[in-house]
Amino acid sequence: MRDDHQGSTKGGRPAGMRRRVRHGQLLLRRHGPTSPNWRKRAAIFNGAVAVGLVAIGFAWVADRASDLFAALAARAWWLPLPLTPAAFVLVAWVTRRFAPAAGGSGIPQIIAAKAAPERATAGLASLRTALAKVALTAVGLGVGASVGREGPTVQVGATVMAYAHRLFRVPVTASVLVAGAAAGVAAAFNTPLAGVAFAIEELAAAYEQRMTLLVMTAVLIAGMVSLGLAGDYVYFGIVGQVLSIRATLLVAPVAGVLGGVAGACFSRAMLWLARGGALRLAAGRPLLAAAGAGLVVAAVGCLTGLTWGTGYGAARELISGARAPLWFGPAKFLATLATAAAGLPGGIFAPSLATGAGIGEAVRQLFPGEPGGAVVLLGMVAYFAGVVRAPLTAVIIIAETTGSRGLMMPLLATALIAEGSASLVSRERLYHGLAARFLPEEEPSPARGQVRPA
């Protein structure tokens, strides 16, 4: 009896207790705070919060840089003529030398990074690239470059989300990059729905079901952080105007075709510049191309006084009823294209919306009896849809950034007409075409509708 009792124990513990302890340890590993599921949830939550905080900080830095340049230009109108070209050369050299993956918008980099997400934090979504993106975009705005912070926030958001997953020892997948990028859009514009739409239309070429929860969670958390700290502001101000069905049938086709064709022309020009056109114009000298582009931006800005930076202020004034010269849209088009030719870090979201506002102003001249702000919004959504080729995203961004929910149907009709018109001028989508240069040469760019295996 005594020997049998001792045989059923080990270290003073009965066999049944040992089994219960092992079972408890197994449950803890599977469902406890150190389990894979908990680590994934922690990575998503903390990553989304960090994206929201970083986006707010980036917006503050970008706004201060723009304000600084506005003050300098107001004090000496001629100062950008020497300052902007010289700064373009410096920023282009620093980008090419130290952070080549930080050049341009940032959205093509994340599209390319989805092909090999496990290597993203080593290059396209590295900490060094993200820091350079923020700093150099701010410098560009500080010298009058026609760039925006929204596209760079996409790349920075994907980087932050990737590092959050690495911190919690969770594999970095394409879904993680898409979620971080979508959270970046939501936080940059303070528009959660736009983040989801952008993830579906532009980033997730093969939008898988298992990606849905990750994207939605990241976008909502980042959006709540942005709303909580920055307030419930509306990017371009509230627009309460509406268009009748008759007015929509008249204005939407004109705005859609004009904006869509103009946006497609911009897209084709950008692809040509990115594929060697800028270097050919500068006889193979990238710094000379940057200097020439800076001179164009400075000259256009000094002549017009309206094309500096994001163009946010000019667009907001047009929406609120102010008038602008008919050449504002073409001038902003040229300034944005020249900035892109220099290869500077910076996005085209805000400059495209400003260019679209200029197109909307031209359309407003054709329909003087219709609500001016509403017509300008149709021009904005048309041009943006023509450039990015994501009509749903364009509609939601405009609706959320202006509170113009009464214009949803006119905006959607205009965006669809613009997308159809743009596809006749340029079959290739801008961001997917630009992503090709960030991929290995032997691997093609991921086509819409499929994800290329790593």
Provide a brief overview of the structure.
Helix content is 71%, strand content 1%.
Top keywords for this entry?
mainly alpha; Clc chloride channel; single chain; 19 helices; 2 strands; disordered N terminus; two-stranded antiparallel ribbon; disordered C terminus
Report on the architecture of this protein.
The chain has 2 domains: 36-230, Clc chloride channel (Orthogonal Bundle), CATH 1.10.3080.10; 245-433, Clc chloride channel, CATH 1.10.3080.10. It is 71% helix and 1% strand. The chain contains 19 helices and 2 strands.
Q: Which range best describes the helical content: under 10%, 10-25%, 25-40%, 40-55%, 55-70% or over 70%?
A: over 70%
Strand content: under 5%
Q: What's the alpha carbon Rg, rounded to whole Å?
A: 25 Å
| SSE ordering | HEEHHHHHHHHHHHHHHHHHH
Q: What is the CATH class name of the largest domain?
A: Mainly Alpha
**Helix tally?**
19
What does the secondary structure layout of this molecule look like, with pairings?
Layout: H1 2-7, E1 9-10, E2 13-14, H2 15-31, H3 36-75, H4 80-98, H5 107-113, H6 127-142, H7 150-167, H8 174-189, H9 192-203, H10 209-230, H11 245-281, H12 286-304, H13 312-319, H14 328-341, H15 349-366, H16 372-388, H17 391-402, H18 408-425, H19 430-435
Antiparallel strand pairs: 1-2
Helix pairs in contact: 3-6, 3-7, 3-8, 3-10, 4-6, 4-12, 5-8, 6-7, 7-8, 8-9, 8-10, 9-10, 9-17, 11-14, 11-15, 11-16, 11-18, 12-14, 13-15, 14-15, 15-16, 16-17, 16-18, 17-18
